[in-house]
């Protein structure tokens, strides 16, 4: 990977990670469109450490309160009723599906699932589900009403993002909307829920890259670190913008963008302009 590729892909990762348009799909598509090929699942996971660092910084106070309350709840049962302690437990519960499925389908995630046919189909199909959820969801629940069952539902939706094109934020926000949560509440829990899963995946892929045990594209460490730093800076700005936007805006623009991009990909793949794998 060249330094130019790292700059472009790092910016793409930062811009798309928190929007419901799938950062992994965009890294895959941009790499192919510029003739650079697939940057690989390992590169994608490692650069996501940068965007999750942006989450840690932006929500540092919330995360600090959650961690402290959760730790206290381990020895003091009365603390478990504290909203921050409950959130800590619900983040753990919601993280289980993606951990289990990520380990079960690791090789497919790094190879088969990265086919552009799958990416294009997922972009279109899940955009329509997001559109439906945004229309029928009551949007009257906040995170104080989050239950264990809802946490698992959010977690299963997040696990769908193991397929490029689904979108981690898009999947979890869609689940939240169907469950009646407001756009901002669903997005907030989506960001918090992603922290352990994404950091775990990123550091696991980094370890495998260091040991040479990567099924897909190998990692060029210098450019990858640069891309990760850029993703952090851009991602921090995108988080702030998206949370403000969701106070008044809908997901329709993202839905339209996903459908157009997915349809364009299908045309380019069908005409042979782009290679699927």
From TrEMBL:
Record-level GO BP terms: cell wall organization; peptidoglycan biosynthetic process; regulation of cell shape; response to antibiotic
EC numbers on record: 3.6.1.27
Keyword Iron: no
Membrane topology: Multi-pass membrane protein
Transmembrane regions: 40-59, 87-105, 117-134, 146-166, 186-207, 219-243, 255-276
Gene Ontology molecular function: undecaprenyl-diphosphatase activity
Subcellular location: Cell membrane
GO cellular component, one term: plasma membrane
UniProt entry tagged with the keyword Transmembrane helix: yes
Catalysed reactions, semicolon-separated: di-trans,octa-cis-undecaprenyl diphosphate + H2O = di-trans,octa-cis-undecaprenyl phosphate + phosphate + H(+)
Pfam families in the record: BacA
Sorted UniProt keywords: Antibiotic resistance, Cell membrane, Cell shape, Cell wall biogenesis/degradation, Hydrolase, Membrane, Peptidoglycan synthesis, Transmembrane, Transmembrane helix
Family of this protein: Belongs to the UppP family.
Function noted in UniProt: Catalyzes the dephosphorylation of undecaprenyl diphosphate (UPP). Confers resistance to bacitracin.
More about this protein: Bacitracin is thought to be involved in the inhibition of peptidoglycan synthesis by sequestering undecaprenyl diphosphate, thereby reducing the pool of lipid carrier available.
PANTHER family: UNDECAPRENYL-DIPHOSPHATASE
Protein name, as recorded: Undecaprenyl-diphosphatase
Source species of the chain: Geodermatophilus sabuli
